[in-house]
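Because showing beats explaining, we let one protein speak, sequence and backbone structure tokens together, and leave readers to judge.
___
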Amino acid sequence: MLRKGLATELKWFLLFFVAVLFIGASAGYWREAAILALGLYLAWTLRSLSRLERWVNQARTGNVQDNELFGMWGEIAEDVKLLMQRYEKDKLRLQAVVSRVQDMTSALNDGVILADSRANIEWWNQAATEMLGLRQIDFGHRITNIVRDPRFQSYFDAGEYAEPLEIESYRNEGQQLLFQIHPYGQGERLIVVRDITRVAKLEQMRRDFVANVSHELRTPLTVVRGYVETLLDMPDQSPMLRRALEQMQQQGMRMTSLVNDLIMLTKLETDDRSAQQDQVQLHQLVGLIFNDGRAMSSENTQFINEVPQDITLQGNEKELRSAFSNLVINAVKYAGAGGGKDCTIRVFTEQQSGQFLLHVQDNGIGIDPKHIPRLTERFYRIDGGRSSSAGGTGLGLAIVKHVLLRHDGQLKIESKPGKGSTFSCCFPSNRVTRTLASI
């Protein structure tokens, strides 16, 4: 069905054409009359198009007037007018939404910054002004030119935003800021800045408290253990007293181990990670750790060192030994626990996706997958009773995690109940000093 404007246009065209053709035919010039009618209609159409164009240009500048066009041209003009009115309504609605969102983000205590695909600042809220000192002249400038901390620039350019970045404010001394970047749209980024000064101070107080308590406990523990050992060496003791002294000695050793682990964790959190970076011979290091493992394992435990002898890893040897030793000792304690089978502990390396991996594998009882995400938490135990009897402190894997983080690495755990476990220490390949093609 034809629209009203087009139907009107066709009706008037046919009437005009028939009238001119009838007049021309009456005079004996019907061909000339037909050509004349078509020419006049074409001229009328061009004139209407010209008027429609002028009207649209006026409407584009915001001066929308009632059109005086006829037929389908008037109908087209009305459609354009309706579309422009809808556009203006949508525009006002979107502007209201944007203004409302900006008002809401301005009420946040967290700083919010919008950066375009070229990292230029498009908008920020009042909290960002207070935290970063942003001014109106900063609009359109790169965010990395405003926040000049090298760690932020590396974090921003890397494009890996799974973890937030914590840095000290360059503007307010003592203020700790947490940056979290969220990509969206066509390369744009939403930057959220939080003031975590209070949390950082509480965390520092916790570390100081743990460090001080751990150091203070060392002296009385040493005294108590010394007297217990002296009493155990005395002859003619009753079985009950000896059993009590042996339990006291065992728990004292366990407390000493716990204190040493707490002190180790505190050092890992507070010491400069760039200090004492050496080339560590991994094969030799694993061999020394295996010697310690054999001293506390049964005769049916087999140790397999498949680390190539020419591999060296850049890092702190003392920290790396602590991390690898924790993994091997855990394997010794739990490999084959309660199963009565021969235990095999295997250490090997490989290269995978630009990373160097050192695996500690055992054929032990395995771990239920639901526990794996929490294994590196402090004092987390899968089986509290068995862990205590084995002499564990619950801090071993937490130490491993912190050591690897200080070496730009991470810990990956794969395990199935009854099938054993594989703990993988993943390091960047640039920390290895030889070609890994033979691994």
Summary: The chain is about 50% helix and 20% strand. Residues 435-439 have pLDDT under 50 and may be disordered.
